[in-house]
């Protein structure tokens, strides 16, 4: 598959965040305005030289890249409820990853996908009888060292399911969509 994500996309996200934090005018993108479902992820280098997640938010509906990258660069950096907002002093310690999502396919069952190849998006019924969704990008399962079942268990918990996870529950309740991602992660090259 030809690469669709570029250095321009990643650096644009940095420029948008920096301009916002400095109250400057937002930059104008120079890359094509194609449409993709997308995610923007921020990591921070810690004192131990490890990567710490600082934000990751995106959208499964195709968006024009000019609008989508601008929106999710800021939303993932400033509004991910799991983390405090990123501040200007963190920029030298950050990397930004842009993931453009492709090849969406309904799976035959909850295990019809490959670790390291597919991201997974599940729809399921929680213990209150309400429909919920949750996703992991393709790299998450490999980074965590999870099996398919461990990833499904974790994803159900992430999505708010706290009942027993059994094969019968998984087979009857989970609708899984698998997808692939073109991803590039870089530090700021300002």
From TrEMBL:
Coiled coil: none annotated. SUPFAM superfamilies: AMMECR1-like. Residues 1-190 form the AMMECR1 domain. Pfam families: AMMECR1. It comes from the Eukaryota. InterPro entries: AMMECR1, AMMECR1_dom_sf, AMMECR1_domain, AMMECR1_N. PANTHER family: AMME SYNDROME CANDIDATE GENE 1 PROTEIN (PTHR13016:SF0), AMMECR1 HOMOLOG (PTHR13016). This is AMME syndrome candidate 1 protein. It comes from Mucor ambiguus. The lineage of its organism: Eukaryota, Fungi, Fungi incertae sedis, Mucoromycota, Mucoromycotina.
